[in-house]
Amino acid sequence: MTTPRAESPSRARVLDFAGRTADLLERASRAAAAEPAEPADDAGAGGAGSTAEHAARRVREEAARAADGAASLVVVGEKKRGKSSTINSLVGVWDLLPVDADVATGVHVVVRHGERPRAEAYLLPAAGSTTGAGAGPSDGTDPLGNPAPAGEPDGRPSPEPIPLERIAEYAAVDPLTGRPHRLDVHHVEVELPVPMLAAGLELVDTPGVGGLVSGHAELALAALEWADALVFVVDGSGELTSSELEFLARATERTVETVFVLTKTDSHDAWQAVLARNHELIARHAPRHSGASWFPVSNRARRDAAEAADSGSLQEAAELLSESGFEPLEELLRRRVAARAAELRLANLVHVALTAIAGPLAEQEQRLRSLRQDPTLAAEVQGAEEALRLLQPESAQWRRVLSTGARDLKNALQLGFRRSVNDVRQYAEGQIATSEPGTLAQEFPADLEAQVEAVWLQLDNAARRGLAVLEEKVRQECAAVLDTAAGSGPEEEAPGAELVPVDGSDGSAVVLRSERAGLLPEMVHSKHREGGPLGVIESVAPSLGTAATFGTVLSLLTGGILVPAVASYAMLAVLTRRRRQRTELGRVRGDATRHLNRVLTELSTEIPAQITSHVDELTDRLGAVLDQAIADERVRLEKQLADHRRNLAASAADLAAARDRTRRRIASLAVLRDEGAALARSLGAPSDPGASGADGASGSPGPGRS
User: Which of 24, 261, 383, 551 would suit a FRET pair with 3, their CA atoms being 20 to 30 Å apart?
Assistant: First the structure.
């Protein structure tokens, strides 16, 4: 049985209000299409049918988001902390995520509710065409022998259904080689019909949790920009590490709620002392999180409880579940995190509905003025038409703001990208200089890949923020003339919805990747042949003189031959081994440096062009939307003026009947407006549709969001 989603007391009222608002707007659209000059009495609202239809669609889309949108929990943890086991325990699927391999490919794994178990891997363009680890053979199949689908032609990842038991093949690294099984996977999405997720939550397993340093930390931090909560997993074996504390200090910049999970309480008797010490460290190094909740848990006890319940031992299952510590954790996630996210989405829905109501209501109020033969109305409409003409020339102020803003945004994104590349280079060079050869050869490529993925995510976040600011500036330039309350301004035409293209659920982004930028080159491991007599001589000769000198000196001091000979041989072996180690270190460092330079050169070649291309495309789209809004407003004003002139010539009886119909429409819209304003106040949202800026502040997009 599925636990119901965390309910807000206002949820049913808000969804009912939104449904009635959309119904009213759809009736208005049908009536306007059937009889444009004189809307039917039951329309409830007037104006262009397309405007009402668009507004109704926006309300229904936002209602679906409020009803189905889940709170995103970004789950982070160091190696071997029990993070994957904790996610498996929360969803009650014990082998969902691999617990013996780190997800270190720069891939998010999103686990959300669905009616049936299913999983999809989102593949980058030209999957299977790359070479190196994880690449498919030349016959067009992937490494598992399946047909390798190409990504979307515009650079967006394309979904491929995969079995749940093969998630590790798409989202994990090979524990022996440290290389990803797949190089073409952007992210993986999983749906499960389980109570924890049905309560209104989705779990985002951050990639590369092999250490909260380098690109793995950058990825997690970037993901927090669209998360509702951070679930930070540690264990009871020892206190927080410096890298964990550093991550938490940096996460202070984000405003999401933090929840700490302390695992393996069944394996470490001193976990309570560790917990107390962690509280002290948090208070000292990351005080922003000092008030966060801590939950000691045992994944083993949680699984044993499920097995006991399945076998019918309900008393034992209850005891084990209580011992596991998961009940209070799940309760907090459901009742606080999910409920808070639901409240925000309900507030956004009310705001969108109020915005949709405002246009038709203002239009009907203007119509009533005309039916009353207001002598000032014609002059006002003509003045609005004159002001509208100022927005049409190519030299209009809003066009200059758009052009200048687009240029500044591209410059800012280019600068941010260059700084990110410099940060990646600085960190990577530090790793190359300090890491052991084996660690460097195995972990460096995946680590660098995670850093590159973080650059993309940070760039996308910055682009979204910059485009939203630019959109608002342009909208404000037009707002005085394109009165959004009249029903056809830029907010009603939704340039925001057009500009920010997706909610992130399909993995798309503002700055799309080219094929070359999406698939990074593989690290090439150089070879050095040291076999054969010449190889032995080459290896030993540089150390032979030192060893011989050492043996001679020792022979003179001791007066013997055997001991100096043995010591000389030992010295030769030590020096030869050290020389080989230095040679190997130099070779691996050279490989890593060349790989770093290849990757950064590829990015520096591809990404600047992508920034320019896509910012230009999206700002052109915004300009086109505003041009259409201006044209629609001109048509509306012309129709309003023509209607007013007809009303001036109409008979008193016709005017009285029309006034009565218009008053009823205004009354029905005003009832909805007042109901929405009361709901907004109860949710702590602005009751003024213009208070939150363009597009109704309908939520933040991001990878995996529904």
Answer: 261
